[in-house]
Amino acid sequence: MKAHENEKKWIDPFIRQNGWLLAAGLTMLIYGLGEAGDSLYLLIVQIGLLPYIHLNWTFPEIGKLMDHQTIVLFPVFMFFAAGRFLAAVGVLRNHLWGFWLGIFVSTITILSAIFFLPLGGIDMLLSLFVVVALLLGFLGNVPLVHEIHK
């Protein structure tokens, strides 16, 4: 047996067969990395290396925080970045906790994104796609956690 045949695959073969779970996992992975980039941008703005690009937020309180105290939003952005990244890894590795974490983080995003409009609209749409894809994948022909790997 070749050495690479013994290595575990990064994406579980059962998830590769389930297009919806694969799409949800990859979307959360890319989305989580994007959120991590947003978090890094907040830190860079806070220390003054880059200027804040001013947006007209629906809620003026968010605009005030972004103008004067961007660091306050750093933990919020990191929560979503870490949650999405962990959920993506869990789903792609075929773990049920990844599915539930993905549902949780995406649902919280859908409910809270209204505070971050207009950009929150993109968050809502991506999170809605993730929830629908996770549910369709979970209820599909190739179930999540199809087989326990030894």
Description of the structure:
The chain is mostly helical and 150 residues long. The protein has one domain. It is built from seven helices and no strands. The protein has helices at 3-6, 13-17, 19-46, 60-68, 74-92, 96-112, 120-138. α3 (19-46) packs antiparallel against α5 (74-92). Residues 1-7 have low confidence and may be disordered.
Largest sheet properties:
none
Distance between the termini: 17 Å
Count of individual helical segments: 7
Low-pLDDT stretches are 1-7
Structural class: mainly alpha
* Oligomer classification: single chain
Order of H and E elements: HHHHHHH
Work out the strand percent.
Answer: under 5%
The number of domains:
1
What is the CA-based Rg, rounded? 18 Å
Instruction: Output mean pLDDT.
Output: 85
Total beta strands = 0
Work out the helicity level.
Answer: 55-70%
